[in-house]
Design a protein that fits this description.
Number of domains: 2
Number of strands: 8
Number of helices: 14
CATH topology of the largest domain: TIM Barrel
Oligomer: single chain
Length: about 325
């Protein structure tokens, strides 16, 4: 997820049960131009493994060259993003824009597969619009091109994140006798109950969690515990929330440097503290502070203020991205 799934965010997700994680998606053109922001997204750490690096683009040569660059940092796999629906990506003929030209999608995938020894996976959507929900054909052709797994978001590009994700076509792909690679489902999973229901009903090999983990990395362990025991874990209390916020903050400052790390952390506070009464004043203070010491003081104040408060479990709000990308 653009501007979300960086190493600090991935660190707290890993702590809370994420089995496999991906970097923010990286422009193939940016990588081969040696753009600083694109290169920075290649940062991965041993404690994150297994971890995949995700790239996007619409030019075969650029995708092949960027795959070779990705290989130098030794991720566990390389993922191709054919699902990002935002205009600034689609207008460049990348992300979900490639869904309008399946032959191009196959050529891009083949170029990447041939240029690297890493396992290559793909993440995509059902199709461009309701008249071209061609994911079954896409899955077969991408498998023939050499990918090792396919993740499918249950919406078309034109749906963006509106309406309910349709997992029935994901199930058709999984049950296609021609398909022998793992199929992962994605879209609208916001609770352990729904994760188990969808896994059983649609028969997928695994479930991808995106937006539901923003501000709530505990969802991974909650899902795994529910699948194993049928019981719900207690929601994180204020002490657990503050501990995760602090780790996320420290990792952000360490990775991005003090000023930028603090600035980028500001977008996360509201999601971590959602649901607590009278929290707005604290949030407003947090997003104006400029030093770790000041932020720590307010976080400690929040922890003491809500000590003993039991937050009722409510459905996790799936953040609706506009100029971000969360396939």
């Amino acid at each position: 997820m653009e501007d979300v799934s960086d190493p600090p965010f991935r660190s707290v997700c890993k702590d809370n049960g994420a089995d496999l994680m991906y970097t923010e998606f990286i422009s193939s053109e940016g990588l081969i131009r040696d753009a600083i922001k694109s290169r920075k997204k290649l940062d991965i750490f041993e404690e994150e493994r297994p971890v995949g690096i995700q790239i996007f683009g619409g030019d075969e040569e650029a995708m092949a060259l960027s795959a070779k660059i990705v290989e130098t940092v030794n991720p566990d796999l390389l993922d191709i993003n054919f699902g990002c629906p935002v205009k600034k990506v689609v207008s460049k003929g990348a992300g979900a824009g490639v869904l309008k030209d399946i032959d191009l999608m196959v050529r891009l995938t083949t170029a990447v597969v041939k240029s690297t020894s890493l396992p290559v996976t793909v993440k995509t959507r059902l199709g461009w619009d309701d008249s071209s929900r061609n994911i079954e054909e896409v899955a077969e052709r991408l498998q023939d091109a050499g990918i090792k797994a396919l993740s499918i978001h249950g919406r078309t590009r034109c749906q963006m994140y509106k309406g309910e994700a349709d997992w029935t076509l994901i199930a058709k792909v999984k049950n296609n006798p021609r398909i022998n690679i793992p199929i992962f489902g994605n879209g609208d999973i916001d609770s352990p109950q729904k994760a188990l229901e969808y896994k059983n009903r649609f028969g997928v090999d695994g479930i991808m969690i995106g937006r539901a983990a923003i501000g709530y990395p505990w969802i991974f362990n909650e899902i795994k515990h529910f699948i194993k025991t049928g019981e719900m874990l207690a929601p994180p209390d204020i002490h657990q929330r503050i501990a995760v916020i602090k780790k996320h903050l420290y990792k952000s400052v360490e990775w991005k440097n003090g000023v930028l790390g603090i600035l980028e952390m500001r977008s996360h506070y509201a999601n971590y503290l959602k649901g607590f009464p009278n929290i707005k004043e604290f949030r407003n203070r947090l997003v104006q502070l400029k030093t770790i010491e000041e932020i720590e003081a307010v976080l400690n104040e929040i922890e003491n203020y809500y000590k003993g408060y039991e937050l009722e479990r409510t459905p996790i709000e799936l953040i609706n991205y506009h100029e971000k990308c969360a396939v």
